[in-house]
Amino acid sequence: MEKLKIADKEFTSRLFIGTGKYSSNADMAKAIDASGSEMVTVALRRVDIRNENDDMLAAVDRDRCVLLPNTSGARDGEEAVRLARLTRAASGINWVKLEVTPDPYYLLPDGGETLKAAETLVNDGFVVLPYINADPILAKKLQDVGTATVMPLASPIGSNQGLTTRAAIEIIIEQATVPVVVDAGLGLPSHAAEAMEMGADAVLVNTAIATAGDPAAMAEAFKLATEAGRTAYLAGKAAISKTANASSPLTGFLRD
């Protein structure tokens, strides 16, 4: 499969993994390994990013996976920028998944604050991957200020509802000049395959894997679904018809 390029890095895997909600760090490590993922996001509020011996960080194979800090929990753009800068100062990591979610119930991102924070961080030298509502106008504005990707939500984070925003994501993909990573709400491998078949460049999954009965097995299922969806997209889908079209000739019967 062709590689995905984001900023100056190339990825063989198009499945990104979150690190929250696992019952143990050992389960998380097994799931990451089974997923084949090369991009792992971690909430800055949950770990000591300065300490490579932090229990959670120590479970991530840093030789294989890019660590993508996120600003989960930031309630406005100013707080997200402060978190990103503190992380870079402590770790040297200048990649950030930008999350601004003032709404504690649905955890929907604030588009205006996200745009302001993204522009500040891009100008500050960060590689910014913003988590957003499936808003095509906002997605264009973010790519215009220099974000490395856009990450529209499929449905509310952790809800496992699947692609409830499909129509808007299709527009975002059509207009995108940066990779589109479908994030949040993908509850089944078939949801990931659907996003990839639409032309998404990658998907990010956390809850559906971390809370599965067997996280490693579910991670492998998402890996296979992501690969299948991408392969199907590249193959080119067949046309949809309102009428039947026989796959075998309807002539040559004895009655003819």
Automatic annotation (TrEMBL):
| Pfam families with a match to the protein in the record | ThiG
The domain of life for this entry's organism is Bacteria
Pathway(s) annotated for this protein in UniProt: Cofactor biosynthesis; thiamine diphosphate biosynthesis
EC number, UniProt record: 2.8.1.10
What does the record give as the reaction this protein catalyses?
[ThiS sulfur-carrier protein]-C-terminal-Gly-aminoethanethioate + 2-iminoacetate + 1-deoxy-D-xylulose 5-phosphate = [ThiS sulfur-carrier protein]-C-terminal Gly-Gly + 2-[(2R,5Z)-2-carboxy-4-methylthiazol-5(2H)-ylidene]ethyl phosphate + 2 H2O + H(+)
Q: Is Nucleus given among the entry's keywords? A: no
GO MF annotation list: thiazole synthase activity
Residues bound to 1-deoxy-D-xylulose 5-phosphate are 158, 184-185, 206-207
**A single cellular component GO annotation:** cytoplasm
Alphabetic keyword roster: Cytoplasm, Schiff base, Thiamine biosynthesis, Transferase
Q: Where in the cell is it found?
A: Cytoplasm
Q: What is its main location?
A: cytoplasm
Enzyme group, top EC level?
transferase
Residues of the active site are 97
Q: Thiazole synthase ThiG domain: from which residue to which, for each copy?
A: 5-249
Q: Which biological process annotations from GO are given for this protein?
A: thiamine diphosphate biosynthetic process
**Tell me, how does this one assemble?**
Homotetramer. Forms heterodimers with either ThiH or ThiS.
Q: What PANTHER family does the entry give? A: THIAZOLE SYNTHASE
Function as written in the Swiss-Prot or TrEMBL entry = Catalyzes the rearrangement of 1-deoxy-D-xylulose 5-phosphate (DXP) to produce the thiazole phosphate moiety of thiamine. Sulfur is provided by the thiocarboxylate moiety of the carrier protein ThiS. In vitro, sulfur can be provided by H(2)S.
Q: What family does this belong to?
A: Belongs to the ThiG family.
Name by which UniProt lists this protein: Thiazole synthase
Q: Which organism is it from?
A: Anaerohalosphaera lusitana
In the UniProt record, the gene name given for this protein reads: thiG
